[in-house]
Amino acid sequence: MTSKPTKIGILTSGGDAPGMNAAIRAVVRAALSNDIEAVGVINGFEGLINGEFRNLGARDVGGILQRGGTILLTSRSKRFMEPSGQREALRKMNEAGVDALVTIGGEGTLKGAQVLSEQGVKVIGIPGSIDNDIWGTNISIGTDTAMNTIMEAVDKLRDTASSHQRAFLIETMGRNSGYLAVMAGIVCGAEMTLVPEVPVQVEEVATAVEDAYRRGKTHAIIINAEGSNIDTAELARSIDNRDLGFKTRMTILGHIQRGGSPTAYDRLLASRMGIKAVEALVEGTHGVMTGLKGHGIEFIPFKDVISNKRQVNMEYYNMAKVLAR
Ligand code: F6P
């Protein structure tokens, strides 16, 4: 017979992502429905080390479903990477009677979750990252909202690009993953998409810009993922110095991609994963991440998640190329 936890701690860590609040709300309310207490850990793994816990009732998570960011705050804790930090975190959890943990965040968060899991803590991970670079889930919480933010921004940039007949170099986030850039390339109709997974030469970009001009286009939109082999500002300078038909401007979308009210898709995904995380703990399952596979939420072992690398889907990359004609 498995004993269900009595007090679940919830933390968000790493880069915030829209929908994290919806996941927090779901975990708290699912825990309460199962007669389990819920406590928020303030400021990610850093807060775990410092013992910063806050009891969360149903009303404490009211009105947060539609809010971007994370009400629990977040950090990238260096101290937690050290055994001494982990030992301190375990001690603080024991003192507070927290006997299970739900961590919401990206790759770094899942690695932290795995460390605690190896030390006997019942942990469930929920993937939250705009980058969509986590193996084992079709999509992470926050990615859809970020995609929509990018799409809105690029649509606006295209309006002015067309009016002035310019080439625009637009940098998207994504760390070492080209996911956001490739998807943006498709849904925003970019003339070229640069991703970390496929290095290109500046000459190829110049050719794409000139081709767009020759074909009679009124603009050339080039999406550059932040992790690609070419720096956006340098690329803009280099392209602008050539006679390609279009003059050039550059926009780095930056942290605007991380904020904002989560889309319906992200709210739903976060709510489903939050409920599923508590279900797992009640059933005695832990050491796993909730992952969207097909239409269902499945449990993927941490060791599989962190030992595999999610690759950019080349089918989509090629699709963006075909559609750029
Ligand atoms: O992982 C999310 C992300 O926004 C990446 O796309 C980006 O590389 C990084 O975080 C930026 O981190 P910071 O907010 O610490 O500058």
Describe what this molecule looks like in 3D.
There is one protein chain. The protein is of the alpha/beta class and 325 residues long. The protein folds into 2 domains: 7-142 and 262-307, Rossmann fold (3-Layer(aba) Sandwich), CATH 3.40.50.450; 143-258, Rossmann fold. 42% of the residues lie in helices and 18% in strands. It has a 7-stranded mixed β-sheet, with helices on both faces. It has a 4-stranded parallel β-sheet with strand order 7-8-6-9, with helices on both faces. β10 and β11 (296-301) form a beta hairpin. α1 packs parallel to α9, α2 (44-50) packs across α3 (83-96) and α6 (179-187) runs parallel beside α11. The longest helix is centred in the middle third of the chain and has 22 residues, at 143-164. The chain binds 6-O-phosphono-beta-D-fructofuranose.
In short:
This protein is an alpha/beta fold and 325 residues long.
Note the main attributes of this structure.
325 residues; alpha/beta; Rossmann fold; seven-stranded mixed β-sheet; four-stranded parallel β-sheet; 18% strand; elongated; binds 6-O-phosphono-beta-D-fructofuranose
SSE blueprint and pairings:
Layout (H helix, E strand, L loop, with lengths): L6 E7 L6 H14 L3 E5 L2 H7 L2 E3 L27 H14 L3 E6 L1 H12 L4 E5 L15 H22 L1 E7 L6 H9 L4 E3 L7 H13 L5 E6 L6 H9 L6 E6 L11 H20 L4 E6 L2 E6 H6 L6 H10 L2
Parallel strand pairs: 1-2, 1-4, 4-5, 5-10, 6-8, 6-9, 7-8
Antiparallel strand pairs: 2-3, 10-11
Helix pairs in contact: 1-9, 2-3, 5-6, 6-11
Bound molecules: 6-O-phosphono-beta-D-fructofuranose.
6-O-phosphono-beta-D-fructofuranose binds next to loops.
